[in-house]
Amino acid sequence: PPQSDGHPMDTFHHGESKVYQYGNRQEAAHLWYHDHSMGITRLNVYAGLAGNYLLRDQFDTGTSSNPLGLPSGEFEIPLTLSDRGFNADGSLRIRLVTFVPEGDWEGGMIGDVATVNGKAWPVAEVARGWYRFRIVNASNLTTYRLRLSSGQPLFIIGSDLGLLNAPQQTTRVQVAAGERVDVLVDFSSASSGDEILLLNDAELPGQATIF
Predict the structure, then answer these.
(1) With 50 as the cut, is the pLDDT of residue 211 above it?
(2) Which strands, in side-by-side order, build the sheet including 144-148?
(3) How far is 171 from 17, CA to CA, in rounded Å?
(4) Under a CB-based contact definition with an 8 Å cutoff, are residues 79 and 117 in contact?
(5) What is the pLDDT of residues 94-109, one digit of tens each?
(6) What gap in Å lies between CA 41 and CA 49, rounded to an integer?
(7) Pairing mode of beta strands 76-84, 130-137
(8) Would you say 182 and 132 are in contact if contact means Cβ atoms under 8 Å apart?
(9) Of 81, 65, 55, 188, whose CA–CA distance to 133 is shortest?
(10) 196-208 residue pLDDT tens
(11) pTM above 0.85, yes or no
(12) C-alpha torsion angle, residues 112, 117, 119, 122 (rounded to 10)
């Protein structure tokens, strides 16, 4: 409803709060939310004010007994991708391109450090078996073309609007800013100690002139 739409001028200050209500009248899907304050949206999202919103239904229940047999619990992992730039002291670098004068509006921010769920270059241990990765590109501008260093297939089962009618097998998937993709990966053939990298081989936009 309009009163829960969170438009840019719907502001409240420190010590204040608002309650938003959503009917969730749709099939299961991977939604996400982020701050949308007037004039500082890019800065607040860049600072990490965003989150996943996994909507369930009677088929995609999120439990181990779900009728679709989808991985759940520790085998269902949200991956929020976002590029960042950092200063020498570890603080976020707000200005990332050289051609925009300081103080002017900078519409697209490109970072040279990949973060997943807010952590730079993270590592995760996985068991042998199937995993479900709920990927959202929370970057300001960057588009990712993702693949696994092992060359093994990715099974795409969902997108922004929810589950597909059938899985689609591929070895690469492209995700633009704000887009979501629901991916199954089978690690059954991996050996103990194997290192499998999630790689991005998309070209950076032309304005990605990093300081």
Answers:
(1) no
(2) 173-175, 144-148, 198-200
(3) 45
(4) yes
(5) 876 667 777 777 767 7
(6) 9
(7) parallel
(8) yes
(9) 81
(10) 999 999 987 665 5
(11) yes
(12) -90
Mean pLDDT throughout 73-101?
88
Counted residue by residue, the chain has a size of 211
Mean pLDDT for the chain?
90
Amino acid identity of residue 138, one-letter, is A
For tokens 């103990």, name the residue: 192
